[in-house]
Amino acid sequence: MENISLIGMVSVITAGLTIAIGSLGPALGEGRAVAQALSAIAQQPDESGTITRTLFVGLAMIESTAIYCFVVAMILIFANPFWDYVVAPAGG
Amino acid sequence: MTISPDNIVFWQWGPFALNATIVFTWLVMALLTLVSWLVTRRLSTGTELSRWQNLLEVLVSGIRDQIRQVSHQDPGKYLPFVGTLFLFIAMANLLNIVPGYTAPTGSLSTTTALAICVFVAVPLYGIVSEGPVGYLRHYLKPTWLMLPFNVIGELSRTIALAVRLYGNIMSGTVIVAILLSLTPYFFPVVMQLLGLLTGMIQAYIFAVLAMVYIASATSVRRASDPPDAAKQSSTDQ
User: Fold this and answer.
1) Residue A21 domain flag
2) A67 in any annotated domain
3) Which of B191, B232, B229, B236 is nearest to B73 (CA)?
4) Touching check for B115 and chain A: CB below 8 Å?
5) Selected residues 3-62 of chain A with any CB under 8 Å from a CB in chain B
6) Is the dihedral angle over the CA atoms B32, B63, B198, B84 positive or is it negative?
7) Where does chain B have alpha helices with state H?
8) In terms of residue numbers, what domain contains A37?
9) B41/chain A closest Cα distance in angstroms
């Protein structure tokens, strides 16, 4: 198979797989964290301020793993260095 | 589709390009400075105060409370740095409601610069608080075997700070752009509303994480006494 179509195919498939698999773990983790925080607030409503603050910071930390996958997927689709390398000599 | 405001160039002079990131960063900085200067020109200490002074007082005292709760230390010397980080990122993200504006935090250059500020500020605050030897000893805890991991952790959390903020804002922009081509008029607006919330939370998280990193470099000596006193004074008022 030609190099260009091979690289394009692998990039698109990998981008889809990256965001699909990469969002699984954080989704499960965030669901668990929110459920725990809700039950904690139900048990101790007075501490809801502290719990909410810690929850938001924790959620951001968890979510950043999904964001890394998203950034990698975006790079693969829009700013792929291998694609640029293959396309450049063909164009000029 | 442009995924970074770096690619929108307004003006080019030789190798110097004036792109959207720089222009909107300056805009946010000018706006923050101008409003603060205008408001603090006529401060009143009495019971009559302008609504702008009221706004700034709420902001400053809110940030001070948050810093005190996170670090268990006197917020005075951290307020300029952490407060500026928060206000800049929050304002940069909130101005998204203005048409034609693209958030400078959606560019990796801006977020990397902010993360490097944190990366430099942590040892500075640590050395001022504990002295150079006391600060460097942090890297040998709990044993000297952890030295490489501590150094890598210092670098990786800086990268994580930068990529987290960049990824969140950029993903909002990209999702709105994709939705505009699929289902215009309604869903993009909803996603932009969600983007405002995300931007606010990310600003808060960036500031809190910067404070946590600074506090972890400084708080060893004072961890014992002030938290109870600080907590009581904050609940009593």
Assistant:
1) yes
2) yes
3) B229
4) no
5) 50, 53, 56-57, 60
6) positive
7) 20-41, 51-71, 79-94, 108-137, 147-182, 187-218, 226-236
8) 3-78
9) 34
Is B163 near chain A, with CB under 8 Å?
yes
ipTM comes to 0.71
Tokens representing B207 are 């500031």
Rg of the Cα atoms in chain A: 20
The rounded mean pLDDT for chain B is 84
Question: pLDDT of B79-136, one tens digit each?
Answer: 999 999 999 999 999 998 888 888 889 888 899 999 999 999 999 998 988 888 888 8
What is the 8-class DSSP label of residue B78? T
C-alpha A44/C-alpha B235 separation (Å) is 17
Q: Is residue A88 part of a domain?
A: no
Task: Calculate mean pLDDT across residues A7-14.
Answer: 92
B164 touches chain A (CB under 8 A): yes
pLDDT digits (tens, 9 = 90+) for B166-219: 988 888 888 888 888 888 888 888 888 888 988 998 899 899 999 988 988 886
Number of structural domains (chain A) is 1
Written as six digits, the tokens of A40 are 């904690």
